[in-house]
Design a protein that fits this description.
The complex is a heterodimer of chains A (112) and B (114). Chain A has 112 residues and is mostly beta strands. Chain A has no helices and eleven strands. In chain A, strands 2, 4, 5, 9, 10 and 11 form a six-stranded mixed sheet that branches. With 114 residues, chain B is an all-beta fold. Chain B has no helices and eleven strands. In chain B, strands 2, 4, 5, 6, 9, 10 and 11 form a seven-stranded mixed sheet that branches. The chains are: A mainly beta (112), B mainly beta (114). The interface between A and B is medium-sized, with 24 and 25 residues.
Chain lengths: 112, 114
C-alpha cells in the first residue's frame, strides 16, 4: 500500500527564516511526486511535479527536491504570503489513471 | 480561462437525506476525481472517472455514488447522508491516463450532516 508521511505537522517561521518541509513516501514504483499549496477555505493549488531522484524544481521562494525515499520543500526567506498548508502526494507506476495518495500536510505560518 | 467549479459551497442536511454535490470543469479533461478532506486523514479518494460512462471506486466509496454523462460534469451523490460524512469535499480533474499529469482542484464544498 502506498503511504505518504509529512513532517512537521506545523511550522512557525519568522519572515526571512528559511526552513524545509519533509515528505517521506513508500510506493511500489514512483511515477511522480506532487507538491500542492492549500490556503484556508480553498482547494489545493498545484506547485511541482518531480519524477526521479536528484530532480529539483523551483518557483519563487520554493524549491522541491527528490530522493528515492523522500522529498523536501525548501522555503527560502519566506514572506507572510507563504503561509499555507503544503501537501505532498505520490502517484505509483501501477496506479490506475492519475490516482494520487496524499500526505497529511504541513501547516506553515510565517510571521512578519 | 478554464476552471473547475463546485456547488453548493456550503450545505447543511439531515441524516438520511439524499444529497448531490455538483462538479463542473471547463478544462476538457478526461479524468475527474472526488476527494474528502478531514482533520487527521488528509485527502482521501472517493470515486474517479476516466471518461464518459466510466466510474470507479476509490478508498472510501461506501455511501457515495457518481455518474459521468458528459466530459464536463461529475456529480457526487450521498445516498443516505450520515454524520460520518460531514466533511469538506473536493472535486479535481486532470488530462488523460498514460502519463503523469497534475490534478486541478475545485474550491470545495463544506457539507454538514446533522
Amino acid at each position: 500500500e502506498d503511504q505518504v508521511t509529512q513532517s512537521p505537522e506545523a511550522l512557525r517561521l519568522q519572515e526571512g527564516e528559511s526552513s524545509s518541509l519533509n515528505c517521506s513516501y513508500t510506493v511500489s514504483g514512483l511515477r511522480g511526486l506532487f507538491w500542492y499549496r492549500q490556503d484556508p477555505g480553498k482547494g489545493p493549488e498545484f506547485l511541482f511535479t518531480l519524477y526521479s531522484a536528484g530532480e529539483e524544481k523551483e518557483k519563487e521562494r520554493l524549491k522541491a527536491t527528490l530522493t528515492k525515499k523522500e522529498s523536501f520543500l525548501h522555503i527560502t526567506a519566506p514572506k507572510p504570503e507563504d503561509s499555507a498548508t503544503y501537501l505532498c502526494a505520490v502517484q505509483a507506476l501501477k496506479a490506475a489513471g492519475n490516482k494520487l495518495t496524499f500526505g497529511g500536510g504541513t501547516r506553515v505560518l510565517v510571521k512578519p | 480561462d478554464a476552471e473547475i467549479t463546485q456547488s453548493p459551497r456550503h450545505k447543511i442536511t439531515e441524516t438520511g437525506r439524499q444529497v448531490t454535490l455538483a462538479c463542473h470543469q471547463t478544462w476538457n479533461h478526461n479524468n475527474m476525481f472526488w476527494y474528502r478532506q478531514d482533520l487527521g486523514h488528509g485527502l482521501r479518494l472517493i470515486h474517479y472517472s476516466y471518461g464518459v460512462q466510466d466510474t470507479n471506486k476509490g478508498e472510501v466509496s461506501d455511501g457515495y455514488s457518481v455518474s459521468r454523462s458528459n466530459t464536463e460534469d461529475l456529480p457526487l451523490t450521498l445516498e443516505s447522508a450520515a454524520s460520518s460524512q460531514t466533511s469538506v469535499y473536493f472535486c479535481a480533474s486532470s488530462r488523460g491516463a498514460g502519463a503523469t499529469y497534475e490534478q486541478y482542484f475545485g474550491p470545495g464544498t463544506r457539507l454538514t450532516v446533522t
